[in-house]
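Appendix C reproduces, verbatim, an entry submitted by the partner laboratory led by Prof. M.T., so that reviewers can inspect both the input and the predicted structure.
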Amino acid sequence: KKNSFFALKAHLINPSGQVLYHTPWKNELTGILRGNPEALFEIILFSHVGCQECRVLERSIEEPLRGLIDEGFIRLRIFEMPQSPQDEALASLVTCLEGSSEFRKKLINRANLTLEYAQLEKTRMGLQASCDSEEISGRLEKRAAILKEAGGVSLPVLYVGKTSGSQWIRLSGAQPWEMIENTLSKLIDSY
């Protein structure tokens, strides 16, 4: 370990909302996990498929991250959550179907996503969404509380850090891949 996160923080420029956070989540949240659960580094993404900026971000990081994920070097966790009360039905449906990465992929590639389209796509794909609504609501509420505690204000929000650590760098908004890659590189170089 060359440097601490605090040394890393001193090297970061902050025009894009990069902030060092002590996060409360550890492994208590359930969501979509891509990659090796034992990977050294992790990217945590709080997102909503109904949010255009979120969909753009997810599409832009998918390909560049694939190699790092396939190598087992990094893992990605995605937590679906609504941006507003109007988004709750769509967020609940997507959360219920978190086991289907193909479903999410279809939704993030849709230009104008609606709840009706998501329900139609679920039917086309033959997916069953029989989740307990109270359990899903509880999951979404817990995610919102944890995101708020970790300083997230609006979606999308990415946290980049060492999987076993509790200190994370927050990137807010639809950041270009280069910004995420730069943050990852600095983090990796600090260990």
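The mean pLDDT is 82. Additional entries are available on request from the coordinating office.
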